[in-house]
Amino acid sequence: MNSGEAYAALYRESPVRRSKFSGMKRHAAALLGSLAMLVLFYGTVHADIVYLKNGRKFEGIVKSETDKAVEIEVGFGTVKLDRGDIQSIERADENGIDRLKEKWGRQTEARLKAEKERQYAPKEISVFDENGHLFLVTRINGKIDATLLLDTGASTILLSRQKADAANLDLESPKRVEVKIADGRTVLAIPVMLDTVRIGDAHAENVQAAVLAESLPQQGFDGLLGMSFLSRFNFQVDYANKKLILEKRR
Where are the domains of the chain? Predict the structure, then answer.
């Protein structure tokens, strides 16, 4: 028996050796397969890459090209580049573009979720105290600031005629409502709808309000902040720390 025949006989007679040898072959095949996948993965361009002559680059999806310009989508918008500033463009394959779009989709979902959490997070707003009364600076329709007395007993926002005129509110309605002002008197007011009301980082849209039908003597503030705004939130009035805490209702 020559050496080759002896080795073959030994291999046939040893199940342990046969098992070990087969395992090595399977491991080698798996390793080669993994290497092939890595080569395929890293050999794929996952985005169009526009290289500029100044060394900068933009990664995304080229949306349009002309002799003068190249427009590339970069996730949350587009960038238009002068063709003369471009050194070269590396193109992604179709699979790379699909993966990039999926990545952008996940990023958009995460961003929207974070924005929603910020929107509903409690907002702490500083107020100032005068003789036990709390006042806040309130932005009306994104145009004017009004100093309002915080009044949880008032059903609506009440504005002085002067501030309503400054905000260019439409006061042509013939309708009048009775409201009680801070000194206890009942006066006539014109119902209006405010586009936006903002206090610090808290805001609400389409808020009912009323405007005093007649100008009254100045009282050092511009109206009342009532429940037409406050009811949009879970709110807490912290007299000790002079804060109004607003948490938007879900």
Answer: 3-42, 48-120, 123-248
